[in-house]
Amino acid sequence: MLSHLTQIVRSVKTTMLLASPVTGQLVATMTKTILDPASSTRSFYFDKTDDRVLFGDIRENETHLLTNNQTIKIKPDMVMDFRDLPFENNKFETVIFDPPHRFNLSSESDFIKKYGSLDRETWQDDLGKGFTECFRVLKKGGTLIFKWSEVSIPLKEILKLTNQKPVIGHPTGKRMGTHWVLFIKDNND
Ligand SMILES: C[S@@+](CC[C@H](N)C(=O)[O-])C[C@H]1O[C@@H](n2cnc3c(N)ncnc32)[C@H](O)[C@@H]1O
Fold first, then answer.
1. Pocket residues for ligand 1 (CB within 6 Å)?
2. Helix, strand or coil for residue 44?
3. Distance from residue 13's CA to the centre of ligand 1 (Å)
């Protein structure tokens, strides 16, 4: 009953968006096969305007000057919250999930400007909901690529937040603390 109501609310939200001035943009996003709901500056993309990807973020439009004088811009195709994604079930072929992985240092730090931060009180709930939502909107048999840096929390603690089973994972970086983890959504989910 609750999940039926949630689907109705989502479809009403989508209809309201379709009726809004951003209709053209929304229609364009309907053809995308890859979702990145927390894309920030899109730093790991070969093509930052790759038209197969729907770039999302909770931040609508931010420009920051970093201490090395580099200017960064966060401007997603669509503002979204990975804890409550505005899409139907089983929509995307691929989801790329790279959430914040560090507790807040200072909102002025370059790191936070680029990558955002985890809330000390709610991070488990936030990331658990993020996994649930990313897998919900992923097609059955679809691929989810998860990136995690073990700056504040070990990967094994994070993997407990989803009941999906990872296929492979690979540590990278100077301290081997950044992990790329591949999941395939079960056909029965
Ligand atoms: C680690 S960064 C992503 C870096 C990105 N993959 C890149 O290549 O530049 C995490 C991003 O998640 C965003 N974020 C934080 N909470 C979010 C939420 N609830 N929903 C969507 N995005 C969120 C932050 O604003 C930040 O831009």
1. 37-44, 57-59, 74, 80-83, 98-100, 115-116
2. coil
3. 22
Closest by Cα among 135, 129, 56, 31 to 90:
135
pTM above 0.85, yes or no: yes
The answer to whether the CB of 25 falls within 8 A of the CB of 86 is: no
Which helix (H) or strand (E) is 17 found in, with range?
helix 2-18
- 79 backbone dihedrals φ, ψ, rounded to 5°: -75, 130
Q: Which fold has domain 32-184?
A: Rossmann fold (3.40.50)
Please list the residues that pair with 169 across neighbouring strands.
181
Please tell me whether residue 12 adopts helix, strand or coil conformation.
Answer: helix
Average pLDDT over residues 168-179: 85
**Is pLDDT of 1 > 60?**
no
Identify the residue whose C-alpha is closest to ligand 1 atom 16.
58
